[in-house]
Amino acid sequence: MRAKSLWIFYPSVQLHYAINQNKELFEKMDNKIDKLPELNRDVVNTINALNKDYDNPLEYDESKNVIFQSVGDRKYTLGVDFIGPSAFIAEMNGIDENSIFEFQYQSRIMGGHLLFPTDIYKVKSKPKSLNQIRSYRFEERIDYFLFELSLFSVGKNKVEASAGVFEGNRKWFEQFGKFPEFVDFFKLNDFVSENYEVYDLSSLDDYGHMRFIQEQPDVKYKNDYKKALMEAYSHNYKNYIKGCVSAIQKRDERIKKLIG
Predict the structure, then answer these.
(1) Domain residues of the chain, as ranges?
(2) What value does the mean pLDDT take over residues 14-23?
(3) 122: which residues sit within 8 A by CB, 6+ positions away?
(4) C-alpha to C-alpha distance for 256 and 260, rounded to whole angstroms
(5) C-alpha span between 237 and 230 (Å, rounded)
(6) Which end of the chain is more exposed for a tag (fewer CB within 10 A), N or C?
(7) What does the pLDDT look like over 150-162, one tens digit per residue?
(8) Where are the beta strands (DSSP E) in 65-136?
(9) Please, which residues bridge with residue 19 across strands?
């Protein structure tokens, strides 16, 4: 089963996406949506507009459809990544195609995208980037990824399988300062509390309340590592979808208001 939708991008001052539900055309495009120049350009323009006085602005090479950022004497290549719920994990949890389309429809907006360096580092002999770690080690859970980043920023990250990738990107992260500055730069404030504690998005209740993540699930000594990861991070996935989409939509509104 493949969830179907189409995202047509119309750049504007608000950097808001007009969405057309043309399922047949989306199926033909498949994953090419993430490579659309309009998406890269709009994310770069948005982040730069939100951080006008920043010393290391993002650069977009339209001819190559590549995003760069110079930090000190190093030039990073960055990729735009969708941080909404995973259609694959939703399918694995028995969520129907129409529901998958609906949450994609609601979260494939500016607030549902983030930038990461594309540099590759070895994880148990396998090459991984930051976004691949978010997918591979945290099963697409942006909340648990951010929690680990919050620990990394104070030298306390505990996930062995992703430590090398975080460490390899240390200088890129350090340009922002600590975790709170990273959150503020990318306007991820709806994923954390006022004290920058990371919300467990799967804990969203009917009153809009959420718990904070306290620790990563322990899967180190499980025999079937991949199965253990899936079980640890995909529990209550329907509620995670609700919490994640809510945070993305709030972030999207925050961005629009700040840009004006």
Answers:
(1) 7-259
(2) 37
(3) 128, 164
(4) 6
(5) 11
(6) C
(7) 999 999 998 999 9
(8) 66-71, 74-82, 113-117, 121-123, 126-128
(9) 7
